[in-house]
Design brief:
heterodimer, A: 411 residues, alpha/beta, B: 359 residues, Rossmann fold, 2 domains, six-stranded mixed β-sheet, globular
């Protein structure tokens, strides 16, 4: 890279594909939740929802609903303050490749916090990319008002090339890396400006807490709903998301007998087994699952018995948990379960790597207070079953708007 | 436990369905109990799967180990001092390797079993033998020992043997011609790995437009079809091609696992692979591991009575096969006969992988 009188000449320019925007970056920070950005998102939402191709993709529609003005307005209210908050400058996003629509979420986070964005998407072709970017292009060109928004959006892709990553890292004020730990370590080799900051989404562990009493009190309709929600948290993405649970903690109240607890488990897993009938089971997934179940039986002292519901649901009984229990990562519908009477019994599970606890029938505030009281380092989200994948402005322990903006202090 | 020599007294392809069932059931229950009591990792898996050592199980309900366990753990049912040989294999994933521990008895039983099975396919127990490979496989420590074990195993049947390829994988045609002339009166055993045969023997002869006279040879090959399938070469084309360059008519493909060396599955004159009484195949459905009907494709489970030094007697493989029938193959051999369909397809992983974490 050469700097000639302030102009930046990028040596690798021919290796970069520009989908939206171009190499000319003029960072012009906006206030957070700028009205023009919110209007643009509302227009984009309508355009996407009307688009017949977009309608085929549940993830695009989820995104379209999320960016509606009404929804964003509600988020904005949480940031009302005397303080003036503006974007920090340029955000360089390294988006995940396997869930295409997340590039769009990452971009929107950057826009809402008032920044100019360079988003690196995967070189793998994806129809979701095409649909979203075509709609964006149309909406951006539709009103003169959106000129300022257009200048804040650059979407690129390039084959893994550390020189290009070096370049974007050297000009950005915030780098956002949707990792895998390996990706994060690789990207960290590229230097940032001294004042620049970084937001990384590393590999995480998640689990669920279910109340035995609550499950036993549910009627059939509620159970079906719970099973459906649980399915969406897990099977929908082959249990591969960082926020998908690997372990079910059964919380027993004092009056719950051993038999009640067994019954609750049976009630729950039978419904999951029914729900999982719609999951597309592959031979490869079955082999992976059976092999890893046997592997954990050898490696992990806490693993006791296997309960299988056809090859769709595998449940491993644990008789205790330790820090290493978090190493047991289920995929394709493999879960551990353990019974507890009180939270201190699962203290080892609240380590730094733990991200999401999904729950049913417990008091989330009480659990949150417990975590603070015991001074644990992990757990960034406590959300009801069914919400494990709901990406939002609070994620992985970051308040994303605050992390990507700065405050102008005035007296 | 039953003396393996008594097992070998049973003719390899003589027992009918019910007789074989009773015979195998007793043996496999014994082996399962033996390994349960002698291999700690195996004990853990069987406890996990709910095995009860006091119960007599049917063949189909006995617990089976996923084959990849041998890549991830040292599975041993004898003390390390008794280990006499280790066999390793490359795996599907390329990097991880199966490691099999043999004591003297198991190693010997592998040879004896191979001799019993092959006795049904070759005219004489000792024949002039051509190995369509390089001797470097035997000398060089870097070669995976599964290929080495195959060559050494089949060399049991050699009276006079020659390696057809030199150290640089060139076909040594003059040496082959001399060897063929010397043994022109006798049937000759030819052995090699499917892909090697195609690449370094067939293609070389074809390129040079040369013919060798293998008309009184019996060719035995193994090691899978994957590489040839990628080149779009079918079983028929393989046979036809070889016939054109060397006139070989008797060609037998075999199937087997390094984890169960010895109990190989030979292809008969009709092109079907056969189970001997010393081993069995079961095909299972992915949905719930229930047993497939005949002619239904399923995941291959292999049972072998040989493994004593490691718990490899009952394995779930990552191959798929179609069992066509039992006891009624036109070739006259009793037992199940089948066709291998290939490996389980590797599905693409959705969700978090290395380029992604967070949702």
């Amino acid at each position: 890279m050469l700097r000639l009188g302030g102009a930046v000449i990028l040596m690798q320019a021919d290796k970069i594909m520009y989908y939206l925007g171009n190499e000319e970056l003029h960072p012009r920070p906006l206030k957070i939740f700028d009205e023009r950005v919110m209007n643009f998102l509302e227009d984009l939402s309508r355009t996407l929802r009307k688009n017949p191709q977009a309608q085929k993709y549940a993830d695009i529609i989820t995104f379209a609903f999320w960016i509606r003005k009404r929804n964003i307005q509600k988020k904005k209210e949480k940031y009302q303050s005397e303080l003036i908050r503006v974007g920090r400058g340029i955000v360089f996003h390294i988006a995940p490749s396997n869930i295409p629509v997340n590039f769009a979420f990452s971009l929107v986070f950057g826009l809402l916090s008032g920044n100019t964005n360079v988003v690196r998407i995967s070189t793998k072709e994806s129809e979701q990319y095409t649909i979203i970017m075509n709609c964006m292009r149309n909406v951006l060109g539709s009103k003169a008002d959106y000129q300022v928004v257009r200048e804040n959006i650059v979407v690129v892709s390039y084959l893994h090339d550390s020189k290009i990553t070096d370049y974007f890292s050297s000009i950005c004020d915030i780098r956002v890396v949707w990792g895998g730990n390996e990706t994060i370590n690789e990207v960290r080799k590229s230097k940032l400006k001294p004042k620049a900051t970084e937001v990384t989404f590393a590999d995480r562990y998640s689990f669920s807490i279910l109340s035995v009493k609550n499950i036993l009190a549910m009627d059939e309709k509620q159970l079906r709903k719970l099973a459906k929600d649980f399915y969406n948290d897990t099977y929908l993405i082959d249990q591969n998301a960082c926020s998908s649970p690997h372990l079910i903690v059964w919380k027993k109240d004092k009056e719950i007998s051993k038999e009640d607890c067994e019954l609750a488990k049976r009630v729950f897993w039978n419904r999951i087994s029914d729900e999982a009938k719609k999951w597309k089971l592959s031979e490869m997934a079955v082999m992976e699952k059976y092999t890893s179940a046997c592997r954990y039986a050898v490696q992990k002292k806490e693993v006791q018995k296997l309960h299988s519901y056809s090859n769709r649901v595998y449940v491993l009984d644990l008789d205790f948990v330790s820090e290493e229990t978090a190493d047991i990562r289920g995929r394709f519908g493999l879960f551990c379960q353990v019974e507890i009477s009180s939270y201190p019994e699962i203290l080892p599970l609240f380590g730094q790597d733990t991200q999401t606890i999904t729950y049913q029938g417990i008091d989330s505030r009480e659990l949150g207070e417990f975590l603070v009281e015991y001074g644990v380092c992990g757990v960034d989200r406590i959300v009801p079953v069914g919400k494990s994948l709901d990406l939002d402005l609070i994620w992985d322990g970051y308040d994303i708007i605050c992390s990507m903006s700065r405050v102008i202090w005035h007296e | 436990m039953t003396d393996y020599n008594n097992i070998l007294k049973v003719e390899p392809f003589a027992l009918s369905k019910e007789e074989k069932r009773q015979f195998l059931m007793k043996q496999v229950n014994e082996l399962t109990r033996f390994h349960y009591e002698h291999c700690i990792s195996y004990t853990k898996v069987l406890d996990f799967l709910g095995y009860d050592r006091n119960k007599m199980y049917s063949l189909e309900t006995l617990p089976f180990l996923p084959i990849r366990m041998f890549k991830e753990f040292e599975m041993l049912s004898v003390s390390k001092e008794e280990v006499f040989k280790r066999i390793t294999s490359s795996g599907t994933t390329g990097q991880s390797v199966s490691e099999i521990f043999l004591d003297k008895e198991t190693a010997l039983n592998q040879q004896k079993t191979l001799i019993r099975i092959m006795g049904d396919f070759i005219p004489e127990m000792r024949m002039p033998m051509i190995i369509l490979d390089t001797e470097r496989v035997i000398r060089d420590r870097n070669f995976f020992s599964a290929r080495k074990a195959g060559i050494l195993g089949f060399s049991l049947f050699a009276r006079d043997k020659i390696y057809a390829l030199d150290d640089e994988m060139n076909l040594d045609i003059p040496a082959l011609q001399t060897f063929l002339a010397k043994h022109s009166e006798k049937p000759i055993l030819v052995f090699g790995y499917t892909f090697m045969i195609w690449q370094y023997f067939y293609q070389e002869l074809f390129r040079r437009g040369m013919m060798l006279d293998f008309s009184n040879a019996i060719l035995i090959h193994g090691g899978g079809w994957k590489k040839l399938q990628n080149l779009n070469i079918s079983v028929e084309k393989f046979k036809r091609g070889l016939y054109e360059v060397c006139g070989v008519k008797k060609i037998h493909d075999y199937y087997g696992m390094v984890e169960q060396t010895g109990t190989i599955y030979m292809t008969c004159e009709n092109g079907y692979m056969h189970t001997s009484v010393y081993s069995d195949i079961i095909t299972r459905r992915a949905e719930d591991f229930s047993i497939c009907e005949f002619e239904e494709k399923g995941i291959v489970q292999l049972i072998s009575l040989i493994p004593r030094s490691y718990p490899g007697h009952n394995l779930l493989t990552e191959d798929e096969a179609i069992i066509l029938g039992e006891d009624d193959c036109p070739c006259g051999r009793k037992g199940k006969y089948f066709k291998i369909s290939g490996r389980i397809q590797n599905a693409e992983v959705r969700g978090c992988s290395d380029t992604y974490a967070g949702r």
